Amino acid sequence: MSTTSTTTAMLLAAITSATLVVPAVAAPAADHGADHDHVLPTRRADRAERAGWARAGGWVLAPRVAVSASADASTTGSRVAAWVEIDGAAADLVIEARGVDGDRLGGWVALDQTYRGPAQRVVVADLGARWPAAELRVAGGSDAALTALSWELVEPAYPEAGRRARAGLGPVTPWAAPPVSSALDDELGTIGVITRATWGARATQCTSVENDWYRMAIHHTAGPQTSGGTTAEVVRGVQAYAQDSGTYCDIPYQFLVGFDGTLYEARPYGLTSGATGGGNNDGNMAVCFMGCYHPTDCPTGVDSVPVTEEMLARGQLLVQTLVRLHDIATAEDNIRGHRDWPGNATACPGDFLYARLADLRADLAWYAGAPGARSSPAGQNVVVPVGVATEVWIEVENTGGLTWEPGVTFLAPTPRDAASPLAQPTWPGPTRAATVAAPVARGEVGRFAFTVLATAPGTTTQTFGLVADGATWFADPPWGGGPTDDAIAVTVEARDDGGGDPMPCTAGEPACDDVSAGCCQAAGVGRSLGGGLVLALAGLLGVRRRTRRLS
Questions:
Q1: Which of 66, 394, 399, 539 has fewest C-beta within 10 Å?
Q2: pTM of the model
Q3: Distance separating alpha carbons of residues 529 and 518, to the nearest angstrom
Q4: Is 371 exposed, middle or buried (0-12, 13-18, 19+ CB in 10 A)?
Q5: Lowest mean pLDDT among 235-239, 364-368, 483-487, 528-532
């Protein structure tokens, strides 16, 4: 949100419980233009603020602000637009506006409701001429349902955008190039970006095509995180206000991120951004976080909120996916907060989010395992009798951006897609040793449990990699971030006599005296089947064995 825009005084309606209409004060026109830096009006009045407004003769009066006498086009407007927040079902809201120029007053004009959501409305009116200021009034019967009201006087850059979008029509201006595809890249679908079709977007009215993204701007909306309890309703309302006010041809950002980590396609990302002022939209993809992440100066009634780890993690995944798709450098000069782009006097994206920009720039692959190594016991072979299946498990921490899913993420023998000599029917397949038993999110540890079997005396070393079937091997950039294909190695030594040293108990593992049962060693008691694993894994891992003789 631009701090310069907050200096533009804006009138907010006053509400009364009487049946009379309520007068409000004049507000100068807001100049959005093609490079404006926010969508929703910055001036907002909630019930608490309106309760302090003066009351006289059945009217509730907002504090008066000076009316600009300038006739310059940048300080006059012909359209009044309002974002109205309601609680519960509301009948048609009765809101009117008129132009103000010193002592000269225009006639009252009813605002039409152009968007109706479960918890918000968009209302607009054309004044028929350009005015340096305007005032608004709300019928008292709307008081019970109205929780907050934000409004402004604008000169629409896209006066037909809302009407055409509501009718499902395309842009009124010619395309600068052939229309872009409305389909998202498959990769963005893989990370869970909700498409415009899914959240119910109107038709875009934008025509300027962008095919060379080379930088990125990070924004916040400086508005509510949810509407009616959902982030999707904020997205729909933001688009409605952007188009119906005529200040934008569509949502100005390419992507929106919810506080819960939900990712939304906003403006079709084959179209030029409209979000970053100062002439910085060319090739500059805009990613915007819904909410106000600044300690001060949030609109009245909008909470200043901290960054959530969910939104940061998912935002990083989105940013790093876009970086890979478009070969965008991750240096500070390429991925900046809105405030850092030249010509922008703004607090956006708010101090709380700004402090975490380095996290968004940090490399993050879709699929990756943690660095480090641990084995138990370390530095030994697995010594087994011929014909005895030995159960092994390996644990790896998920350090990538996507969740590992059972039946999708596998521990797989390498060379890739070659059957392992240790494979047996308990494996998912001859080229897949194990999968996780349950979903493993980022930061969690997944266990891959499998059995190895030697059919003849000798020593066999099998290397393993990790693979997300249908997506990538963990060793392969750009979507994989390691470990390498040979990072996990298991060496099995098969003996006719089943000899070997006893294996010590791991923490919490019960011991027993019957060595034939495959128990671990405790208090001098051991089992004849012993030994360990030779392991080298870029991740957190552990090993344990259970044995059974094949019949």
A1: 66
A2: 0.82
A3: 6
A4: middle
A5: 528-532
> Is the pLDDT reported for residue 415 higher than 60?
yes
Cα→Cα distances 378→136, 425, 518, 525, Å = 76, 28, 19, 20
- The pair phi, psi for residue 315, each rounded to 5°, is -65, -40
Q: Which of 77, 76, 87, 9 is nearest to 41 (CA)?
A: 9
Query: Any bridge partners for residue 215, and if so which?
Result: 284
Distance (Å, whole) CA 154 – CA 217 = 25
Which string of DSSP letters, residue by residue, matches 340-383?
GSTT--B-TT-HHHHTTHHHHHS---SB-B-S----SS-S--EE
User: What phi and psi, each to the nearest 5 degrees, are found at residue 429?
Assistant: -175, 165
Length of the chain (residues):
551
Whether omega for the bond prior to residue 502 falls within 30 degrees of 0, making it cis, is: no
- Which residues make beta-bridge pairs with 544? none
Name the region of 168 (left: φ>0; alpha: ψ -120 to 50; beta: rest).
left
Please, are residues 526 and 486 in contact by the beta-carbon 8 Å criterion? no
Backbone dihedral region of 325: left (phi > 0), alpha (psi from -120 to 50 degrees) or beta? alpha
How far is the C-alpha of 17 from the C-alpha of 60, rounded, in Å? Answer: 9
Q: Tokens 């869970």 label which residue?
A: 192
